[in-house]
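Possible regression after last week's pipeline update?

I re-ran a chain I had predicted before the update to compare outputs. Posting the input and the new output here so someone can diff against the archived version. Not blocking, just want to make sure nothing changed silently.
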Amino acid sequence: MARKVNLGVLISGGGTTLQNFIDKINEGKLNAEIKVVISSLSTAYGLVRAKKHGIPTAVIRKKDFPDWDEMSKAITAELDKYPIDLVCMAGFMCFYRIPEKYMGRVMNIHPALIPAFCGKGLYGHLVHEAVIEYGAKISGCTVHFADNQYDHGPIIIQKAVPVLDDDTPETLAKRVFEKECEAYPEAINLFAEGRLKIEGRRVRIL
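New output (post-update):
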């Protein structure tokens, strides 16, 4: 049986992905324990969700630092207070410069099929608006290992959904999020089982 993986979760907003992790852990479907939730905003509702479940929290705000590098160092210092195996970005709207020791141990989820509709400035509902405006027939979500470029690291899992003729950004987002709720825990469980091997741009599932 795979060992339980210790998570550090980075958030900026409502914490719906965080709640999915909590629910899946409680249902015995995610072999993990959340050690700390770090938010880039003190007003993020995800902090309330974490506190309801007794998970330690921290707030590290961009405006308190001169640049991304200094903010990233503060995030790393907070993570280092815990025995973290894997860092999960869960709607984190800031740039985290990943130190060498966490390379291959930071995951992100994006609400589109990378390399389409991704990169700096494309996040949340802006992604779904862009997909619909472009006339794409398929969208979905991508779980990938993060590197120090936006939405760039090696892809672990992708799940697709159709884009319907009458879709709005809201209806498409709902359909994509249902797939996100499957894909992210699946990727974390594979990590916990030691089944993910990064080979250049590819992730091999053993």
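Follow-up from reviewer: compared with the archived run. The longest helix spans residues 169-192. Marking as no regression found.
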